[in-house]
User: Which sequence fits this backbone?
């Protein structure tokens, strides 16, 4: 059964950036103090927090990429801000210098994940990693064929699965899969891998690029049968995945060619 965490996430997510010595020319990154930020934490709402002390070097590349992610994140109900960590601030996140090279993901006041800023290297990586961490119940990361078969067997007669291979976490293709999971995560089980050997084991002829399969498991009643698989032939983009999933939802047509009438007739 799908987790209710996705529904909680959809209810509202806040993405907050903490830093100093970075002056934005736009109002897209409102500046907060640590006290202001922590006072806004609400149960069920997520926050990605980046701390820098006054006088420390600015992580300008990361901040520029985050600013590019503001609008896409807002489309998912995620707000973005920056917070200056003053010198006398007693918070543990304003302490050690090495800690200032991490972004901290919270839900309410609960720490979910620490991100080294070097893995949030561009707008795609920021969006992909944030959604991946928040949708951990909707998107299962797998590394072996046994993992895939286990999920497949658990879904037979119940639900369908969307399985994808991406070359690395944080790529544009990974972002596209996560954005699809944001929309369809309560309707389908998503599974993701970066292991090319797993892709080879399921019989993919071409393995030099990202793949996405739709596993038709809902109608499989015999547990000894494999779920039928349909490969998405288009590149992995958010729009292409959306069209592909809609196509998989369309009723199947059975077409018969009539020799006497010399034409096809199709029925649902």
Assistant:
């Amino acid at each position: 059964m799908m987790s209710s965490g996705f529904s909680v996430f959809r209810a509202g997510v806040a993405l907050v950036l903490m830093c100093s010595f970075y002056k934005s020319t736009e109002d897209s990154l409102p500046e907060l103090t640590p006290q202001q930020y922590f006072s806004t934490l609400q149960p069920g709402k997520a926050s990605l927090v980046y701390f820098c002390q006054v006088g420390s070097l600015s992580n300008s590349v990361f901040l520029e990429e985050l600013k590019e992610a503001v609008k896409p994140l807002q489309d998912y109900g995620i707000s973005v801000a920056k917070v200056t960590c003053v010198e006398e601030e007693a918070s543990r996140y304003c302490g050690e210098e090495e800690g200032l090279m991490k972004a901290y993901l919270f839900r309410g006041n609960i720490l979910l994940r620490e991100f080294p800023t070097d893995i949030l290297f561009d707008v795609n990586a920021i969006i992909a990693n944030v959604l991946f961490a928040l949708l951990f119940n909707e998107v299962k990361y797998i590394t072996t064929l046994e993992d895939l078969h286990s999920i497949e067997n658990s879904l037979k007669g119940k639900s369908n699965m969307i399985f994808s291979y991406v070359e690395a976490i944080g790529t544009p293709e990974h972002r596209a899969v996560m954005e699809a999971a944001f929309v369809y995560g309560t309707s389908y089980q998503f599974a993701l891998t970066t292991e090319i050997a797993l892709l080879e084991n399921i019989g993919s002829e071409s393995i030099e690029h990202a793949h996405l399969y739709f596993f038709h498991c809902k109608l499989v009643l015999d547990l000894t049968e494999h779920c039928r698989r349909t490969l998405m032939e288009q590149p992995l983009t958010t729009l292409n995945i959306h069209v592909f999933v809609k196509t998989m939802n369309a009723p199947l047509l059975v077409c018969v060619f009539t020799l006497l009438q010399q034409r096809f007739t199709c029925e649902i």
